[in-house]
Amino acid sequence: MLRRATMLAALIALPFVLAALLVSPPAPHAAERARQGFVGSTTCASCHASEAAAWRDSDHARAMAAATPANVLGDFSGVTATDGRHTASFRREGDRYVIRTDGPGGAVADFTITETFGVDPLQQYLVLFPDGRRQALPWAWDSRPREEGGQRWFHLMAQDPLPATDPLHWTEREQTWNFMCASCHSTGLVRGYDAATDRYDTTWTEISVGCESCHGPGAAHVAWAQSGARGEDPHRGLTVNLRDRSGGAWRIAADDPRGIARWDGPPRQSSAAQVETCAPCHARARPLVADPSPGQRFLDTHAPLLLERGEYHADGQIQGEVFEWGSFAQSRMSRAGVVCADCHDPHRGTLRAEGNAVCAQCHLPARFDTAEHHRHAPGTPGAQCVSCHMPAVTYMGVDRRRDHAFSIPRPDVAAQVGAPDTCTSCHTDRPQSWAARQIVEWFGPRRRDDPYPALAIAAGREGRPGADALLAAVATDRAQAPILRATAVSLLPMPPSPATAQAIGATLLDPDPLVRAAALRMLEVLHPRNRLHAARFLTDETRLVRIEAARALAPVPVAALPEAARSAFARAWEELLASERVAAERPEAHVNIAALLAARGDMVGAEAAYRDALARDATHLGALVNLADFEAQRGRHEAAEAALRRAVAAHPGEAEAHHALALALARQGRTADALAPLAEAARLRPEEPRYGYVQAIALNQLRRTEDAVAVLRANLERHPRHRDSLMALATIERDRSNFSEAERLAAAAVALDASDREAAALLAQLRGLRQRLPGIR
After folding, report:
1. What pLDDT, in 10s, does the model give residues 435-464?
2. Which residue ranges form the domains of the chain, and what is each CATH number?
3. DSSP secondary structure, 319-376, as one string
């Protein structure tokens, strides 16, 4: 995949701007709405006037709107905006709003705005193209007050040249509203993608986020209200029952020295429903079903992003644009039963109280809203709870969003894992060591939150020795948040060590489905005969678990499955393929399907899926690289090489393309031809030691030993703990009779991991040589 792909959702799952039809497709006719059970927010407002009044001014109500004078905030008075790389002009023709900028193929043209997208702190604009795609313009209107720097046009990716061929260009797939954004900005959405024609007929029951986006279709509720038999249905005809009728409340006990509220009453009946209603649109997640409706369990409709490098720091802080769910899912508050509506008014979308008062609902002000606790002057920004416990990151240029993990500041841990911390983010002239000393001075050396998970995640990401044991301990600690445990599972090193194997075995039985799904994903690296443990999960109650079980069993012949599991596999297999087809407009979905079909031995189907991927993007890197591997497995080496040369030509700056081409040449015995692309891969990605290592191995095979040694030494200067480079250089030095240097390198490899048998054997051999041959150097 392209390394920049993680930026895609960062444009808020940006509405993707397609070019020039003037009129939006009509919403479904009344008969269709009735069939679907949607009645519209106007109907809801007839009985719920106060809630509707609060909602009308919310960001949800203004999430998307027709481009009319009442809705457009930007300056379309004929102004031109430029940032040195990109230029656009904005004008109004009656009630028609037009932007002139570079469009498909890079040609400058006029594009008519069809919808607005959001309002605060920025507003984006959509353009409808003839094939039904809506594309989000890269120029956004900063809607903040002028005194805050707003009331201006700005480009969302000002530092990127974005030629028309770039997937992130506003006319390309990474900016297609229909796929990236639509389901969370409109109500009753049907994406309407036709894979045969590669067109959209997207419809909605309401253009913005209305009542039924959260409460579900309202027809049954209206019927209930009109029937007069109100005591007969405890759910009142609602698809999603969000009201808490448990009779409990959050209370701070008078004798609780912590001063923190606990839930007092029966279990909250609506707590899971509340979080799972918000999660699909407030999480980075891959949809598993087309056009999911409210009321379905989150993991039945979506596969959420785990705490991946580049998206989250190793200590769980938000980094990329990951929205709120992933950080909230890590929090103690989530595990205690706190839900979104405890802090946020669900209709206005605003906080339930201002400043520290929202926290004071559950945290005794006499204990927490004091200088003795926050160590800042009252009334200053540092005295605000969010300043220390909800660090913020700015996305899309002006959109400041807060981390919802509610973590305790740990500058000592942040320093160890290379993450920012809230203290030195404000005190920019001070190092993290200063901040760590201050916290120890104020609160003592013992902290209630354990830094261990962050250190384990960092070790796993870096592939450090001993990471398996650290990650295994986190993965199997059920006191930790499920998203953290699932992340630890996903980082377990393979092939499995005893610690890894035990952790996977334990987490397959974890009560949380997110953890079970992560454990099943790890089975993919095992031989098919060792994956049969997945069969028992083909009937799991959670769709995400079932499809991961089917994925793990993809290469296992049906005859090898227990007879009782065969029909369950067939059902789960169809669910898996259907989950990939949800993104049928995306080339990567067809690449995934091709790999699955090839694993089942369906080479014809796999080849067709690769063709479908390349039909959507003839230069897609993942499709070309995986197609090449597919062709090589079938012995079609010329076809494999041709695909990889296309990849290199289309992506000359991607190390993966050069490296894959080199490996393909080497497999044909053309090691000399592989040297140039190997060198280019290593040059492009010096931060990836594997590329330099493979280049050195090829050089050594060609008896260019001095060149190989030079590459390995340069690699080790940048990555002194890279085990394979240490071992390769130690072996070369041994073969050149530089025994002392070889012994030093082998000892360094053993120091990385005392259980490394190969390194230990090499070191023992070298020490034996030194004892038998005194005086060797």
Report:
1. 999 999 998 887 666 778 999 999 999 888
2. 3-211 (no CATH), 249-403 (no CATH), 586-676 (1.25.40.10), 686-777 (1.25.40.10)
3. -SS-TTHHHHTTSHHHHHT--HHHHB-TTT-SBSSSTTHHHHTTB-HHHHSSHHHH-S
